[in-house]
Amino acid sequence: MALDSKIPGGPIESKWTNHKFEIKLVNPANKRKFTVIVVGTGLAGASAAASMGELGYNVKAFCFQDSPRRAHSIAAQGGINAAKNYPNDGDSVHRLFYDTVKGGDFRAREANVHRLAECSNLIIDHSVATGVPFAREYGGMLDNRSFGGAQVSRTFYARGQTGQQLLIGAYQSMMRQVSLGSVKLFPRREMLDLVVINDQARGIIVRNLVTGELESHEADAVCLATGGYGNVFYLSTNAKGSNVTAAWRAHKKGAYFANPCYTQIHPTCIPVTGDHQSKLTLMSESLRNDGRVWVPKKADDARSPDKIPEGERFYYLEEKYPSFGNLVPRDVASRNAKLVCDKGMGVGTSKKAVYLDFTAAIDRYGKGAAAGKGISDAAKIKELGEGVVASKYGNLFQMYEKITDENPYKVPMRIYPAVHYTMGGLWVDYNLMSTIPGCFVLGEANFSDHGANRLGASALMQGLADGYFVIPYTIGGYFAGTKLEKITAGHVGFEQAKAESKARIDGLLKVKGKKTVNEFHRELGKLMWENVGMARNKAGLEANLKKIPELREEFYKNVNVVGSEGDFNQNLEHAGRVADFLEFGELMTFDALHREESCGGHFREEHQTEDNEAKRDDENFSYVAAWQYKGDKARQELHKEQLTFDNVHLATRSYK
Amino acid sequence: MSGNMTITLKIWVQKNVKTQGKFETIKVEHVSPEMSFLEMLDIANEQLMKSGKEAVNFDHDCREGICGMCSLVINGLPHGPDHSTTTCQLHMRRYKNGDTIVVEPWRASAFPILRDCVVDRSAFDKIIEAGGFISVTTGNVQDANNIPIPKSDSDRSFDAAACIGCGACVAACKNASAMLFVSAKVSHLALLPQGKVEKTKRVLNMVGKMDELGFGNCTNLFECEAACPKDISVENIARMNREYLCATAMFDEVVRQMNF
């Protein structure tokens, strides 16, 4: 099947406006005849359920957590971008569009990114109307801060808990629809399969995680808002439950998987301390507004940071990238942290960490606050400065202290890159529909807006744009233009998918081997991190393609899944997710091997400039790689969607 | 595994909502002080599964103190001994070699135990459904800066909105009252101009739903505030009581119809 991205014609500024007019409509009275399933209740899922419920569709919302409010969007810290230009610093929809395309290293679809930038302002307006308490200035107006990859301040925030506040806003809007009867909630359900009948997505099979029962749910369309696959690395900043299962199952039913090798390694996370570690914790990018990143100039310098004089410190981001300094995009910051650590300049016991130092900011803010009050006492100035820093990042500093037992107001934070977000995802057209008609994919689960690298504070923007402002329009176009046969959950398509899900569960339970699910997950994660992590090369990727199938084979011979299927059984849930990661990891590796260039988060060591920057190959790789599943034994087939850049001209990305 | 602490757990196990649960004793070895409390439980479960036994189920997800999923009563205290801390943020450096730790689920009749240390907190969603929102439809609302909000109002609203809905307040209260949770939502929205429009109906409906679901009343012991990992203040309860009083006084007719 040839990929048709369905990008509307016309100039980029009017594509979305024209498209909204051209999309066929479903009349209000007919909307209630359609049922839509939304899987996942993060920003994309909750906002989609709310907005479609408001329109009058019957929405069924599913999540594996005990409450929809717990989806992992809640952990997003720093903020959400919008082109409001409130600070009067020259921002515009076009600049946000431009920065995002450039930040994505020219591997995103221009039309989608422009739509995203257009929707950004509506998101802020709507979120404020739903009661999101964004940070404000004393005059009562909204405050902004800066994020990486931009030279304007366009990030709206709610302390270090912006994701939480936005998610609660979307969750509340969805709960309002629950009270009005248009949305029905199904918590503690895990999607195990997509049901495709007559080449149309018509429902899902879920496991009720409390009773273990497999349930069939029919619908006229299915929206997957199931997040990213970062947990394929075992250690990531994702929640423990985040997984690829829903996306992978849809993939095996015909949805192409696009650019799986594009993963974002976030530069500022708390470093790994030992084998026991179950997850990594992010320290928001917003900290780079005020924190200075440095390492000792001398390799293997064991002195404590306060004993290292200014002249012996290497502020490598400020020195290498004077115009963006500490606020370079994430891929650049991560790669440079790895570079200095590889040269032996890393700090801490593992030597795999760099300093993020707030001393200068505390001093600057302290002096600023003291100036008006005529205070000159150094200790008092420091205290005032710490107060200002606390008001901006208090919860992050507290989180850091809880984990590391060190006070970051006094000692520089130690940070290191960690897996955070996945730009790849199921392929979708301009209407957010996958290659399976009626199966839409929203938020992090799709591939469309961030190219090979996502800029900070853009994930929240995309999730909410897709859910509040895109899907309510495009799903109507699908319903109005599609003939849907009447079906029930008793249809043979459901029975078959249910039987397959049951067989997979039985297959896991019957192995009764010696190794735990977690041990397999860790081993897979190690393979992925070493060979498909921050730097990739041919030899490593090829080795992975041998080792992953071996590990998968061992999994089905030697895994020990305890308990039974008819009970609440977290070990069985984990086993199913790891089984899918073991398949998905191979595709991800294969995609990374095939892409013989470096771009954004995908860094192939063979393709770099003399000063270690990513070297793209626009002539040969300016396309979206969409993989089609061809059976367990066959190699996946590559389909290419050529990317054209008519509005942002292809250029080597430079932040110097 | 690098640690050399040994911890004895007395942990609650229960097959499902219908059966009687009990404490099981598990000796956990190779615990290190850097581990989080949940990582220690992970090790305990790995040990159990290695010996062919079932793992103890407990709710958790983000493991960074924000999703509100983790929910354990540790030595009698919801989320353990540290202030402003969720269970997932508690670290084993708080304990010493040889310690015995008692681990239980939240205890409240409105939160039935589903399995081991996992409880059903859907009652909280039902309370939000009863009115914990602003009735605004997605679309072209006015510009976000058209209504200035005093920073202090916005900040206090945020302080209340920081609630993670974990339910520790209910678990800590001898009456299993949900007043802190409900009042945090009432305050979050009532302090904002956008939320003021519906504040009367909201407080009546949410309090009514809370009572209906079997949560107890508040007797001003403030255990909830002490247990709250997000420092939600009991001031919110006072604000909710005030809102409720105003609502009943102003809407006598409505209230009588609602049969309070």
Could you explain the architecture of this structure?
The complex is a heterodimer of chains A (656) and B (260). Chain A is α+β, with helices and mostly antiparallel strands. Chain A folds into three domains: 12-77 and 111-119 and 163-264 and 420-480, 3-Layer(bba) Sandwich (FAD/NAD(P)-binding domain); 268-417, Alpha-Beta Complex (Flavocytochrome C3, Chain A, domain 1), CATH 3.90.700.10; 492-617, Methane Monooxygenase Hydroxylase, Chain G, domain 1, CATH 1.20.58. Chain A is built from 17 helices and 19 strands. Chain A has helices at 15-22, 28-31, 43-55, 93-103, 110-129, 162-180, 245-252, 316-320, 330-342, 359-371, 378-404, 459-480, 492-511, 517-532, 538-558, 570-594, 618-621, and strands at 35-39, 58-62, 80-81, 155-156, 183-186, 189-197, 200-208, 214-218, 221-224, 257-258, 263-269, 292-296, 313-314, 354-357, 413-422, 425-426, 439-441, 623-628, 637-642. A five-stranded parallel β-sheet of chain A has the order 5-2-1-9-17, with helices on both faces. The longest helix of chain A has 27 residues, at 378-404. Chain A is globular. The model of chain A has no long low-confidence stretch (mean pLDDT 96). Chain B has two domains: 5-114, Ubiquitin-like (UB roll) (Roll), CATH 3.10.20.30; 122-258, Fumarate Reductase Iron-sulfur Protein, Chain B, domain 2. With 260 residues, chain B is α+β, with helices and mostly antiparallel strands. Chain B has helices spanning 37-50, 122-129, 151-161, 168-172, 179-190, 193-196, 199-212, 223-227, 235-250, 252-258, and strands at 5-13, 22-31, 73-74, 77-78, 100-104, 113-115, 118-119. The N and C termini of chain B lie far apart (58 Å). In chain B, α2 (122-129) runs antiparallel to α7 (199-212), α5 packs across α9 (235-250) and α9 crosses α10.
Provide a short characterization of the protein structure.
The complex is a heterodimer of chains A (656) and B (260). Chain A is an alpha+beta fold. Chain A is 38% helix and 14% strand.
